[in-house]
C-alpha cells in the first residue's frame, strides 16, 4: 500500500471515529451530570484502544515508525483531552446548579 493512501485511510478512520464518539457523548449527556461523567471516563478508558489501533494501522504504511508514532500520540492526546473536557464540563454543570 502506498504511504499516502495508508496515511489518508488512517486519518479518515481517526476523524470519523472521534467525530461519531464525540457526537454521541455530547448528544446523550446534554445537561446530565452523571452521563457526562460516564462519557468522560469512557473517553479516557478508550484512549489505549485508540493508541494501539492507530499504531497498528500506522505501521502498515510506515516502515520506519516515526509517522505512525507521531499520529498515534496526536490522536491519543485528543481523546485524553476530550475526556478531560467532558469531565470538567460535568463539574461546571454541577456547580452551576
Walkthrough of the structure:
The structure is a single chain. The chain has 97 residues and is mainly α. The protein is built from 3 helices and no strands. It starts with a helix and ends with a helix.
Termini separation (Å)? 54 Å
The share of residues in helices is: over 70%
Q: Report the total helices.
A: 3
Assembly of the depicted chains: single chain
pLDDT < 50 stretches? none
Summarize the biggest pleated sheet. Answer: none
Overall pLDDT score: 88
Q: State Rg.
A: 16 Å
The number of distinct β-strands equals 0
Percent range for β-strand residues:
under 5%
Shape call: elongated
Q: SSE order in H/E notation?
A: HHH
Q: What structural class results from the helix and strand content?
A: mainly alpha
List the helices and strands and how they pair.
Elements: H1 3-28, H2 33-61, H3 66-96
Brief account:
Helices cover about 90% and strands about 0% of the residues. With about 100 residues, the chain is mainly α.
What descriptive keywords fit this protein?
97 residues; mainly alpha; 89% helix
Amino acid at each position: 500500500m502506498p504511504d499516502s493512501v495508508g496515511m489518508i485511510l488512517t486519518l479518515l478512520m481517526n476523524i470519523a471515529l472521534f467525530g461519531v464518539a464525540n457526537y454521541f457523548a455530547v448528544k446523550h449527556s446534554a445537561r446530565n451530570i452523571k452521563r457526562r461523567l460516564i462519557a468522560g471516563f469512557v473517553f479516557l478508558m478508550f484512549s489505549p484502544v485508540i493508541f494501539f489501533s492507530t499504531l497498528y494501522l500506522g505501521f502498515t504504511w510506515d516502515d520506519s515508525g516515526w509517522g505512525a508514532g507521531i499520529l498515534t500520540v496526536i490522536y491519543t492526546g485528543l481523546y485524553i483531552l476530550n475526556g478531560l473536557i467532558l469531565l470538567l464540563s460535568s463539574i461546571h454543570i454541577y456547580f452551576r446548579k
